[in-house]
Amino acid sequence: MLFLRPINIRAIVDLIEHLGWRVVHYIYVSNEGLMRVQQLFQVMGKSDLQMTLNVKRASDVNSSYVILKELHHTNPELDIHAVLDMSIPMASELMNLLSEDPRVHNRRFHFLLVEPGIQELDFTKIRLYGYNVSGFQLVDFNNMTVRLFLSDWTKIDPAEWPGAGVKTITYEAALAVDAVSLFTRAMKNLSNFGLFESLFIRAKSGANSSKTCAAERLNVWNKGKHVLKAMKEMEFDGLTGRVAFDNRGHRKEFTLDVLDIGITRGAVKIGYWTPKDGLTMLKRKMVRPINAPSSENRTRIVTTIQTPPYIMKKPKPINGHPLIGNDKYEGYCVDLARKVAHEVGFDYVFQMVKDGAYGSKLPNDSWNGMVGELIRLEADMAIAPLTISAVRERVIDFSKPFMSLGISIMIKNRRTRKLTPNEWHVEDESNITNDFTISNSLWFSLGAFMQQGCDFSPKSISGRIVGSVWWFFTLIIISSYTANLAAFLTVERMSTPIESAEDLAKQTEIEYGTLRSGTTEAFFKTSKVAVYERMWAYMTSKTPSVFTDKIQDGISRVRESNGKYAFLVESSTNDYINNRLPCDTMKVGSNLDSKGFGIATPAGSDLGDKLTLAVLKLREDGELDKLQKFWWVEKGQCTPQDKNTDGGQSALTLSNVAGIFYILIGGLILAIIVAIAEFLYKSKVDSKKSKTSFGLALKSKARLSFRGHPAREDSSSGTPLRKSMSTYTYSGPSQRKIDQKKINFLIEISLFSLSLSLSLSLSLSLSLNT
């Protein structure tokens, strides 16, 4: 006897052992199923597999539904592992019945089909229902023999040959084709040896003694054993793989593909089984989706999420023409996608993730965000700040990281205030009156500059203006220079209250949180480090919640909390925000971990290796560094003075004290104008009193101011010189002697003070800048 259909009981046992099932419910509907149950017990008895097998016989689909429904209600907390020994259409109908019952939780079921034709199921419905289904596939539709047969099969008229005209074939039909092919090949080989020459002359050969067709007695055909032997020795490649038999008539060189259908990744080939090698599971990178869309000459869909500076919408153009397609976006990932597409060679279009999430595993074992879209094959790749993690690597593929980063701490920046004239006040000093000479004026300016004072001060309006402006100028300059010198010598630095994660964990005054449903949250949730466990306990117990739904919400909370909230975020995002207006955030401490962003693709995508090679080439060429420098540094809006992130003392520059220079110059100009007006007014008054011309009085006062004595002129009348504390007035030509203490008029004071102050200011500003 020959068994063209492979016996796959050993394959079933090996797969159950791989899946780790300990309690298995075996449901069969035919006598052949009962025989397989007996074989299953025999194989289990020879193996070390520890498993509880519950066998149930069902008469039809409805009775099978009742059995599974009872198991569902009896064990409400346990997953149900069931082996279905029935035809593929019957198994599909059974799943439909279960899905229609609202009281049945479909995701609790994991079915294993005995029939080696799992690809005949409707994958879309299975994923929609939420079942997990594993099984075997005998017909390999990628095999050249199968492809050639289907090419001819589609050309046949289905009206004449029912079932023809389609690009698929059931495994039972494939077995029938191989059976016919086996028989015809065996008969052809036998005919070549002349075994059937007498077949058509039976009356003469004696094989059949009857000479008519209506024979009452038939003799046994003695050629049957030769045909069976020829078929058993036959080997060829059929639709069901290599057709070859052992001494017992069982198939010996066939291959069963192991497929798995689930809500997370659809139908994929996860391994294969052969009689010689047993079960061989494919490495994760070799897993390939079944019936995936063709990738040739197709525009790829790139799922992403709007996160500055990775993906941002461009502002509306001035000319009013709307932006369409990929031109609507800009950012680091936009430039990266363009460079990668150029290296690999494909067209693409950006698609914003529908739920606005990066990708987390949900309680029902499904995924949301960009990861979910890749699993459901709704996108071809994800180019975004998507962190490479072990849990994501189990369901999707990642390229080599295009950016390395880690979790960092963002806090409010403690900024120092700029130097302004409004923050200092001039203290009035006691006025000491005395005569001013050139030497005394110099001494007054120097004493005021060194903040030592002197024994005399001006009493006139212009003199007081000059003195006050000069005092104010020297006060600011000396105070600023002393403050910066002290800061330089003592190396005082502004310290932040938080410098590390340990500092955060030790206190409760400053709240801290992170983004909800992200890798940062998962890091703290799964960490076994004591500090991070304590931080996670604090974050989950805090009311109101310290978690945010969006990164921008966390940044806004930092800025509005006045230093009472710290945001745990990726270092790359932290660095970018610190370079954006209003420049009021800063990063403290080192990164808490090390990870990377990668380009994600569905498991087994044809682009996986190509994208990795493209990323490596861009990194070696320095393109990735250029992109990061462009979007983080060159596009930055903050200067080092704005950020003041290191807390150090910055050098005092001329721009910081420019205001007091303006006050000094303005005061000197005002003093000169008042002194000239006062000079002219005094000259006019003296000319009237001395009854001389205004020009002569003006000349005499100018000579007195610059030379120390008036013009030598005869005079027969006049009054004595009238002396005041700050000026001398000429009363007439009769007085010849002038006091030896020559008084410097306010014009002298103004000119001399202006020259002295400007020279000192220039030298001091140069010393401060150096």
Automatic annotation (TrEMBL):
Compositionally biased intervals (Polar residues): 716-733
CDD domains: PBP2_iGluR_AMPA (cd13715)
Segments traversing the membrane: 659-681, 745-768
Record has Cell membrane as a keyword: yes
Keyword Transport: yes
InterPro entries named in the record: ANF_lig-bd_rcpt, Glu/Gly-bd, Ionotropic_Glu_rcpt, Iontro_rcpt_C, Peripla_BP_I
Cellular-component GO terms for this entry: postsynaptic membrane
Location of this chain's protein in the cell: Postsynaptic cell membrane
Protein name (record): Glutamate receptor 1,Glutamate receptor ionotropic, kainate 2,Glutamate receptor 3,Glutamate receptor,Glutamate receptor 4,Glutamate receptor ionotropic, kainate 5,Glutamate receptor 2
The species this protein was found in: Acanthosepion pharaonis (Pharaoh cuttlefish)
